[in-house]
Amino acid sequence: MKWHSCIPMLLLLACGDDSCVLLPCPEVEAVQITVATSQGTNPPPGLTANLSSGPAAGISCNVSVCHVFGGPGDYVIRVSATGFTSQDVKVKVTGEAAGCSTCGRVDTQHVSIVLAPTAGD
After folding, report:
1. How many angstroms separate the first and last alpha carbons of the chain?
2. pTM to 2 decimals?
């Protein structure tokens, strides 16, 4: 590589303006919830999870595990299954929020819960 091909890169680095580069960051898993039932019905039928409060997050459940994708913060996630009493899961996720020219990071929290049948079942 010739030295003159480096000049544009050096100028870009030397400019030092206050521009912020938003990186295309991948979704990161903030919370993983493993769900069982007190009756041993695994996987729990109709397993779902919804964010009650906390940072914006995407949630998906498969078989007996719910995955919450988001950043650091305090989450309250309501976990439900057909024929079982819903349970609120409160989790504090640590890490660094995404910022200018950085994707940040999260310390994924792993939680296990047991759902009880609804009264009368």
Report:
1. 74
2. 0.78
In this structure, what token pair is assigned to residue 106?
A: 């999260």
CA 9 centroid distance within chain:
36
Contact 30, 57 (CB under 8 A): yes
Could you say which of 3.90.180.10, 1.10.1740.10, 2.60.40.1120, 2.40.160.40 is the CATH number of the domain covering 21-115?
A: 2.60.40.1120
99: β partners? 102
What rounded mean pLDDT belongs to the chain? 85
Q: Summarize pLDDT for 13-51 with one digit per residue, the tens.
A: 444 556 787 778 888 999 999 999 988 767 899 999 999
Q: Cβ neighbours of residue 114 under 8 Å, at least 6 residues apart?
A: 35, 36, 37, 38
Distance CA 87, CA 115 (A): 7
